[in-house]
Prior knowledge:
The protein is built from eight helices and eight strands; from the N terminus they run βααβααβαβββααββα. By secondary structure, the protein is an alpha/beta fold. Strands 1, 4, 5, 6, 7 and 8 form a six-stranded mixed sheet that branches. The chain has a two-stranded parallel ribbon with strand order 2-3. Strand 5 and strand 6 form a beta hairpin. It starts with 5 loop residues before the first strand and ends in a 41-residue tail after the last helix.
Amino acid sequence: MTVKKAQLHVSGLKDLQKCGQKFAFRNIDGIKTPTGLAALRGNVCHRTSELDLQHKIDHGTLLPDEAIPDLVSQSAHEFVEKRGMFLGPNDPQTIKEAMKFLIDEAMGFALIHHEKLAPIINPIAVEEKWIVEIAGFPFDIAGTFDVTQLKGFRDAKNRAKSPNANEAFVSTQVSAYALGYYVTHGEVAENIAIDVIVKTKTMAKVVTQETSRDMSDIKTILGSFEAAAKVIESGAYMHADPEVAWWCSAQWCGYHSICPWVRRPVSVATGGINV
Length: 275
């Protein structure tokens, strides 16, 4: 009987690169934490855009404008019910307030996607899962294309500020997806894009960065997965450096309260005695 391999997802590789301890908590120790508001917002927007673009594939048109708000609200409640909600110190501190914040935020981004981005996308498929099997490798490599398009793929993100000019060029995620595309489609992707929906109190826009990957990039990302596999097999997980990693904080990490590597607040009593 063939034993099914465990999968190393692109998100897992990213977690290992950002904080090996977080990867270990989630994937090795099996400790699950509720999802933060920013990630929930991304989940809701992904679900809404997926259904919008699938309607375009099936019927040649996007969903009616009035369908988007209902989809956002429904998806928000479904994701929170399924995954819970992690609230950092700077987030709304009641579920009612947090739900309203989540829906309002996701609504703004989803409407921008529907009105400005979705009309110019020509999808072949949405949320297309892919798996790369490598003989002798301890894991199958896996991921999901947001949008598969002719000769390539694109990925959507939601931000409160514009992306760096070279984000698509250096993106580990794009390189990993290029590997997945090459193996599953039998050719190097020619059309690759990252669509960043940027929304602030005074501005809303879509920033699209087109990029490419070649066989040398695919070999490089394979090396990254090989290095990740060695770390997992050794069990030697390196934590993030809190000096430079902004995500290593009580606001952004649901494991912060149990992590042995973070610095705890220390109060100083009169006379300089730590208590």
